[in-house]
Amino acid sequence: MLEPIPQDLKLEVKPEDGSSEPEYDEASKVVRIPLSALEGPENKRRTKLVLFTCNKCGGRTARMVNPIAWANGVVFGQCSHCKVWHVLSAPNKKIFEEVRYKDEAGMQPEEADILGAHPGGRGGAGAGTDAAAGTPDATQGGDKQA
């Protein structure tokens, strides 16, 4: 389910600190984006701002993502609070399922456990997204760490 964009959400330029990741301050409802996130050839692909809420810790995270991957591929994002990885967008289910379950039967048991492919559980990750992000959860599984 899409969450509405908060009415009092503000965007600010973040002072350069060597990181090109945006920050979200929930107390003041401010997204701080460093200029380096928007400059340079290596960052031209990540132009869509996504805010998501972690299903594990409830923390809110802002990330810049590739809009083409968002619309046609798979986008994963890591919670900035508890470091859990989430599927933020997976509109092309064939790509997602093929990658996720490609060789489940041929995996070594420890690989299957790491990837969440063990019998009795599908593994996976999920996170709620905001209207700024554009789509709801791609999966209904539990969270996993990478």
TrEMBL record:
GO terms for molecular function: protein-folding chaperone binding; zinc ion binding. InterPro entries: Mt_import_TIM15, Znf_DNL-typ. Residues 118-127 have a biased composition (Gly residues). One of its GO terms (cellular component) is mitochondrion. Keywords: Metal-binding, Zinc, Zinc-finger. The keyword Metal-binding applies. Residues 43-146 form the DNL-type domain. PROSITE patterns: ZF_DNL. Residues 1-26, 107-146 are annotated as: Disordered. Residues 128-146 have a biased composition (Low complexity). GO terms for biological process: protein folding; protein import into mitochondrial matrix; protein stabilization. Pfam families: zf-DNL (PF05180). Coiled coil: none annotated. This is DNL-type domain-containing protein. It comes from Edaphochlamys debaryana.
